[in-house]
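Could someone model adenosine-5'-diphosphate with this protein?
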Amino acid sequence: MRRRDLCSSTQSQALGVRTTTPAFTLNIPSEANHTEQPPAGLGARLQEAGVSILPRRGRPTSTLEKKKKPHLMAEDEPSGALLKPLVFRVDETTPAVVQSVLLERGWNKFDKQEQNAEDWNLYWRTPSFRMAEHNSVKPWQQLNHHPGTTKLTRKDCLAKHLKHMRRMYGTSLYQFIPLTFVMPSDYTKFVAEYFQERQMLGTKHSYWICKPAELSRGRGILIFSDFKDFIFDDMYIVQKYISNPLLIGRYKCDLRIYVCVTGFKPLTIYVYQEGLVRFATEKFDLSNLQNNYAHLTNSSINKSGASYEKIKEVIGHGCKWTLSRFFSYLRSWDVDDLLLWKKIHHMVILTILAIAPSVPFAANCFELFGFDILIDDNLKPWLLEVNYSPALTLDCSTDVLVKRKLVHDIIDLIYLNGLRNEGREASNATHGNSNIDAAKSDRGGLDAHDCLPYDSLSFTSRMYNEDDSVVEKAVSVRPEAAPASQLEGEMSGQDFHLSTREMPQSKPKLRSRHTPHKTLMPYASLFQSHSCKTKTSPCVLSDHGKAPDPQAGNFVLVFPFNEATLGASRNGLNVKRIIQELQKLMNKQHS
Ligand code: ADP
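Reply:
Sure, complex below.
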């Protein structure tokens, strides 16, 4: 088969939108072929052409399949080799953007009236799946949740797990979560802490936040300073209130960082380079703790506030920025945004390590987490919570910009990694990953920079490179991203407030501190940069098996981050070893 023929058909199927992940499955009807693999030669040629080959062991062809006109017929292949669109399954909880992105990519929606119960490739829904559903997943299927991950996403469980890690591996590593007490069990400890602090502070106030362990969207939250205002119920946590948040235009904000774990065994973590910054819509004011519009950054709260539509100082209209705009803003203040970003990556790894050993094995699934991170005015990041099924609703243009591409990139990522990590180890499935590589090669190789919505994100690629000499080889010099004119426009005529303690008197000089901008592919010492390669899959590492791909769209691999951690995540997770490596890395980077 000629590659060009197939690719052009693929593109037309995808309605000319994105063709990174081919939207086709090679379906070898079971009557014709009962093996996992297509005939020798066919697989290789189709994979080269960017077609995913998802085996369907012995499954009888459904009536619909027989009736349905194939989208593509491989012209020089044995009769019966049909190319069909991939099929997604949704329910009433599935975010609309997921469905629209998949349709845009040429996928078909699963119809249980018409199709065989197993005729789908991806099931995406908001709640978790039952273990029985995980156990019955087929080699060609993916689920958007991994079992056991709610240990991280309930606020009380998160606090307990991180406390355990602190005991095991030292407080210095795990001091990124504000001091937390789980009610009612920690009530006496909290009371003791509260009064001890009061004594120490004298007339100064201490601030606490009380949050329901299981609720989200800012519901049921209470901020207090005086003990008599403290009311709680079962399943609440009380946490030190970060009273010195980084303020922008005197508004509090927090970061929503998207993290995708494509496998726990072996552990594989990606961080999304774009994200959201969510603002409170009234100015931060510690003298009024009851004003949720000033103290909570949830958009579900702020979008109903009177100030939401107003043009606010520095932040403008609405209550969201993209992460890239936020980092551009920090850079304009000469803030070391790269160091902050590294700290966030470390925090993500350390948090996931807290549950990774106890997560049950499951094949063909992934988990998208939403990490909520608050930055204080010393630029220290604090983990507030980890969200399960982070909101994918499109409330504003910033949401559209970030979340649509996020879903596209998740699909790219799971078809690059998910189908060859746990899936392969567990079921010995033979899914290839070369579909993506071939698709990349069609575009002249994946150039990470092309995928980034903002050049300013390039800093995120400069991670974890231990061998500087190798790193230098992977450097590409690019112009500074957020054009000064754009930033200037955003900032003109406004005051700038970077700190709760001290506000600068003058407008910052806009400069390119990082010019020319260096971009390093992550782990250059370990993995070849994709942009340097066209078609081959990522390097195979000695006897540890294949290394995960370093990047898919805006997703960047943060774990494993070197050969030692790759080894320590195979054949059981050696958390102690991983922590040692991380500690070494942090010492090096922070020094
Ligand atoms: P929810 O799941 O209800 O969104 P969060 O823990 O994310 O709960 O808290 C909601 C908001 O409250 C956060 O987005 C942040 O603005 C604020 N917040 C939460 N915890 C703290 C804290 N410890 N210090 C300062 N602000 C906090």
